[in-house]
Design goal:
324 residues, 60s Ribosomal Protein L30, Chain: A, 2 domains, six-stranded mixed sheet, 10 helices, 32% helix
C-alpha cells in the first residue's frame, strides 16, 4: 500500500468516526493529526489516549527466538506518542495475539513490558492474550495507553513560530518502523553477520528509545516547549503533524547509525525513500524558542547524550528542508 492509499484509508475511517452521535456534548479536544487524542474529564483535566504495536519487528524477534526486548518497543511506541501532547503517561494494557500461548515466550515478552514500564514510569494493570489461528508470523504485540494532562498545558504546536529551535534526540536504531523494507533489503545477509560490530540480528532488535522521562522533566521546567514530535514511520514528515503553518529546516542532522547505510546499500534504496520510511538516527524532536535552546539541550542531554540543535523553524509553510 502506498502512502497516498494509506492516507486515503485513514480519511475514510475518520469520515465515518466523525459522524458518531452520542446524544451529548463531545469531550474530545480537537487535535487533528496529532500523536495522541485527548478527552476532557472536567474543566481542567484531560485524559490522553494512544494505541500502537511493534509491527513486523515481531517477525524478526520470532525468527531469532529472542522476545526479551520486544515489550520495550511496545511501551515506547505508545508512551512516546502520549507525551507529545504534554501528557504524563500513567498506564498501558497490552494485547498479545498468538497461535499457541507458549509460557516461555509470553514470559519473555512480559520481561520487556516490565522494563519498558519502569523506563517510562507507567503501570500495566491488565491486558489480553488471544490464541488465534491466523497471525502474521506467529505472534503480534500491541498496546493501548493513557495519560493525564491539564487542558491548559496541552502541547498542540499552535504556538510554533519561524525562528524557533529544533532539538533532536538520537534514536537507538530502526526503533519499530520500516522493518518490512529492512528485512527485504537485508534478506541475503545472515543475522549472525558482524560487519556492524555486533550480530546483525542484535542490531535490528535494539529496543526503541523511551523519551518520556526527559520530556516530562523538560515540560516541568520554565522553558517554553511549543512542539513535541515522535519521529517514527514517515520520518521527518512527522514534524508536519505539529503545524503546517510553518516549515522545518534541518541544517545539522544527527549522525545516521550504520544500519541505515547498510539497508540503503543492500536494498538499493534511494535516500529520499530512506528519509520517508525511517527515523535516520533522529528519534524525537522538541520545538522551543531559540533563547531556550541551550538550556533545553543541557537538560535533554543528561538523559539522552548526543541531543542537540538540528535546525530551525522556517516560514516555508508545510515544507521540510534538509541537506542533500
Amino acid at each position: 500500500m502506498s502512502q497516498s492509499e494509506a492516507d486515503s484509508a485513514v480519511e475514510a475511517l475518520l469520515a465515518s468516526l466523525g459522524r458518531i452521535d452520542t446524544g451529548k456534548p463531545s469531550r474530545v479536544v480537537p487535535l487533528p493529526g496529532h500523536f495522541a487524542s485527548v478527552l476532557r474529564i472536567d474543566e481542567h483535566r484531560g485524559i490522553a489516549f494512544g494505541a500502537d504495536g511493534v509491527g513486523t519487528k515481531m517477525v524478526l524477534a520470532e525468527r531469532l527466538e529472542h522476545f526479551e526486548t520486544i515489550g520495550i518497543d511496545c511501551i515506547a511506541m505508545n508512551v512516546n506518542d502520549l507525551v507529545c501532547v504534554g501528557a504524563e503517561p500513567i498506564a498501558l494494557v497490552d494485547t498479545i495475539l498468538c497461535r499457541d500461548a507458549d509460557p516461555a515466550v509470553i514470559g519473555a515478552i512480559g520481561e520487556g513490558l516490565r522494563r519498558g514500564a519502569e523506563l517510562s514510569g507507567i503501570e500495566i494493570p491488565g491486558g489480553e492474550i488471544a490464541q488465534v489461528g491466523d497471525v502474521v508470523g506467529g505472534w503480534e504485540l500491541s498496546g493501548s495507553s493513557i495519560g493525564l494532562v491539564d487542558l491548559d498545558a496541552i502541547v498542540t504546536g499552535d504556538r510554533i513560530r519561524a525562528g524557533d529551535a529544533l532539538i533532536g534526540m538520537p534514536s537507538s536504531g530502526l526503533h519499530s518502523n520500516g522493518y518490512t523494507l529492512a528485512r527485504k533489503a537485508l534478506d541475503e545477509i545472515p543475522l549472525e553477520d558482524e560487519r556492524l560490530g555486533r550480530p546483525l540480528g542484535e542490531v535490528l532488535l535494539e529496543p526503541t528509545t523511551i523519551y518520556v522521562l526527559a520530556v516530562l522533566e523538560l515540560l516541568a521546567s520554565p522553558l517554553d516547549v511549543r512542539g513535541l514530535a515522535h519521529i517514527t514511520g514517515d520520518g521527518l514528515n512527522n514534524l508536519l503533524r505539529l503545524s503546517r503553518e510553518v516549515g522545518y529546516e534541518i541544517s545539522a542532522p544527527l549522525p545516521v547509525p550504520p544500519i541505515f547505510g547498510l539497508i540503503a546499500e543492500c536494498g538499493a534504496v534511494e535516500e529520499a525513500e530512506m528519509y520517508e520510511v525511517f527515523n535516520m538516527g533522529l528519534g524525537f524532536v522538541v520545538v522551543l524558542p531559540d533563547a531556550d535552546a541551550d538550556a533545553a539541550v543541557e537538560l535533554l542531554s543528561a538523559h539522552h547524550p548526543g541531543s542537540r540543535v538540528i535546525g530551525r523553524v522556517s516560514d516555508r509553510a508545510g515544507m521540510i528542508d534538509r541537506p542533500g
